[in-house]
Amino acid sequence: MILASLLMLSIAYVQVAHAPDVQVPYFIKYTYTITEDQVLDLVLNASDHFEYKPPSPPEGMEGSTYTDFKLNYVEVFIPKAVASVLKVTGEDYKVRISEDYVSYRFYSTTPVRIENTGDSALVISLPVKVTYVHEEWVHVKSTSAEINVLPPPIPFTSGNVSISLEIPPYTPLAFSSLITPDDIDIISLKAQEEFDPEAISVSPRFVSLSLRQLPYGKYIVGLEPAKPLPACRLYKSMEILNLTIPAMSSRLIAIPAPPNGWEFSHIEAVVATISVMKPSIKGEISVEAPIVDLAYGISGTIPVKFIKAKYALKAYTVYSNRFTIVNKLNIPIIVYLVPFVYREIGEWSPLGLTVKVDRADVDRSTYAFLEVDIPNGVIKEVTLPSNMAVGHYYDSSVPWSGDVNRTISSLPHYALIQVAHDEVVETGTYSFKIDWLPISFRIVDSKGRPLEKGMARLYDNETSIPQEIVGGIARITPYKPSIYRLEVKYKGVVVYDEYVGFPVKPEYMISCKVYDLVVEVVGARGQPLEKAVVNLTAVEGKAIAKATNGSGMVCFEQLPIGEYQLSVSYKNVGDALTVSLTDNIKETIKLDVFIEVPGTNLALGADETAIVTVVFIGLMALIGFIVRRKRQEVVLH
């Protein structure tokens, strides 16, 4: 089974492989799912119909972040015996074909119409599954992250709850451990074997857990560096290996290197044993590798006539090209190994994705699959080279050629299409129509205030998408999955130019290098100077003039980073300086203003005041001398 990889937790800063000095934010997605099973008991006469309206999502848990549950999908199961007469319709739906049911999955809150198109009345009970999800993007600051798994709102129980963690494409991380609140590493094969294989699914980039047997509380996610996974991949099987491992022994398995241009993906292993001599099968089978998913397990008895044969069967997905199979049973085991390799493939466009598969791509392969992960888009249709549209199928086994069925699954953000099964191969161009999702970048200054105007540009080595900033928001729709940078220009200056990674969140907050400059103008005695004129020469070459208030202050708001020329004048006194703006700063300018001459537009500096004081004192002394002389002359006369 080829597993999808598509989940996230928030923003991890990891070194980019091609640029060691650059940090890129990466994300992991955490999804909390509540599943509600219902039964529709219907009595439909010929041509009658029934409309099923999905219930409202749970209100969430008070005092937590789990307050935004939304309907994920409604799934209606129609038994194959009546599938030809029960017509099920609604908006935005997919179909699943399995051995017992034709299932319809609706990704919409609108009613589902179930109509009896037969000639006679129909009394039937239809299973219905409704799922609600809460999604979080958690900031991963190191090689681990913490997830707080809460109980569901009443009346739901742990049996209704599952969680999943997913690392998206182009993220150079993989899961290394997942420690439960009771200190069990649920990724280990030993821990998985304590649960139903369907309750736990594990891969390097995807983990899902049913909480039916697991506790609530804090889960610790371990991460390690890994090779990034592209968004569109062609998988093919290599030579299938068959071997026998004797009782109470082990075998080291080393898979040959993949062909040029291909990367190792995983191995799908099937282990089987049967005994007609031993009364029971004792012991255990284990696979020793960093990450192993126990996909299937069953054991039992086969009654014949006189004898009862014992059998055991297990299936594993092994994510290592070297591993050991340990047989601790009291009988031999037969092992089939199917190694898979992959390579990046496909061309992206604003309309979606086109993938050309050549015969040489899948030559000498028993199995081949196309897998697509697009967190930033919704797959609306998938068209095969034969022009057959298959976008309405999910998790289906569709008739292909003779007795060969074909795996097809097209979900909103994920698709898996089988390309080859032994001699049955379909080469040519596969088309995926995709509605790309817009991303809102909230552009703010260093104080969190929106930048009303400017220009944003999302770009990588091949693509550049410019968008005007309106009201502090730049809505950009990237159509090519990639590791992007975002550039923001404000007043002609680049105030932000950093990696945003593979943008999968619907909204990002972008804090730009835009600051406030506060200028304080004081006199020689430290006194504030009101109505001093402050001229700022901006980066665009435009001068901005403002007058100080009663406290001698003036503020120039939302200036882009850079150097500015400041000139200040107060009456007949002035000064000028250069300011390097790299943060919100306060610049104090002290003017040589000691006193002001009343009734004039003159201000005197300290030196001028001293001279005036000396002159005034001399003048007063001279006047005093003259007055005294005059008095003496009067006395003499």
Question: What can you see in these coordinates?
Answer:
The chain is mostly beta strands and 637 residues long. The protein is 6% helix and 54% strand. The chain has three helices and 50 strands. Strand 22 (292-303) and strand 23 form a beta hairpin. The chain starts with 11 loop residues before the first strand and ends with a helix. 33% of the residues are buried. Residues 1-22 have low confidence and may be disordered.
Keywords:
637 residues; mainly beta; elongated; disordered N terminus
How confident overall, as mean pLDDT? 88
Which value, in Å, is the CA radius of gyration?
Answer: 37 Å
Assembly form of the protein: single chain
The termini sit apart by 133 Å
Number of helices: 3
- How many DSSP E strands? 50
Q: Could you say which overall geometry the principal axes of the C-alpha atoms support?
A: elongated
Low-confidence stretches: 1-22
| Largest sheet, strands/sense/barrel | 11 strands, antiparallel
Share in helix: under 10%
DSSP strand (E) fraction?
Answer: over 45%
Structural class by sheet pairing and helices = mainly beta
